[in-house]
Design brief:
It is found in: Membrane. One of its GO terms (cellular component) is membrane. Keywords: Lipoprotein, Membrane, Palmitate, Signal. This protein is an alpha/beta fold. The chain contains 9 helices and 13 strands. It folds into 2 domains: about 25-115 and about 230-275, Periplasmic binding protein-like II (D-Maltodextrin-Binding Protein, domain 2, 3-Layer(aba) Sandwich); about 115-220, D-Maltodextrin-Binding Protein, domain 2. It has helices at about 1-25, 45-55, 75-80, 90-100, 140-150, 190-195, 205, 245-255, 255-265; strands at about 25-30, 60-65, 85-90, 105-115, 115-120, 135, 155-160, 170-175, 180-185, 200, 220, 235-240, 270-275. The protein starts with a helix and ends with a strand.
Length: about 280
Amino acid sequence: MKNIARLAATVLATLSLLTGAAQAQETIRLGVSFFPFHSADNTKPDILTAIAPEIEAAGYKVEKTVFLNYAEANPALANREIDGNLIQHKLYMDIFNDRTGAKLAIAQAVYHATFALYSGAYSSLDAIPDGETVFIPNDGVNTARALLLLQSAGLVELGEGAIYEASPADITANPRNLKFVQTPLTATAGTYDEAGRKLAVMYPTFARSLELEGDAERLYVEERNGITDAYAISFAVNAKDLDDPKTKAVVQALRSDAAAEFLKQNYGWASVPAR
């Protein structure tokens, strides 16, 4: 009887500890907008699902807040409606901080998104005719990135010092007399398609809406260097939360083999892990 009583006491103590651990588990609220952090198809995994076990082992559970308009994720973070977001690179964040006085910071780079000049009409840069139209993003930071890509492709030249804030006004040489039409980042793929798929600079995430994956219709891909590395899609938090245990738990999980493997297996056609 005494042995049974001891066993019962041990089981109850264990259950009590497990219940207490479950009750102590805190929620980390993360803002997401696009794949690989959020999949509109619930049958497909996302990277947060892949790293959930590691975050849970640290005593937390992830709660995703989906922003159909990714521009709403930074105001939500600045207002502490969420604990962090996964929708941007440092340059985009810096512009938001400058415009609003917010103090967001990058906690961890996650991946380098492939950025490319697409064309379904031309098979080489040399085939681009004089006066052709190129659709590029209109949101400032991605406008500059598109122009830097076109410069590295030899299609335009930008003025000295025109880097992360470059605009079409900074073009000093345009030997093909290319015309630039700026469109919202999320609308570029549709506009490109409607115009006959001539030329557009965009991300594979949006090209995917046209069933373009891998190298399909990629005429020129952005080169990785000290300038373009600043465009790594990252985990952002409020600066004062950089040392918060929640932040550290997410950072550790994003640096894990599980995160890198997920990106290689499920998003290799559009990115390279940044760790």
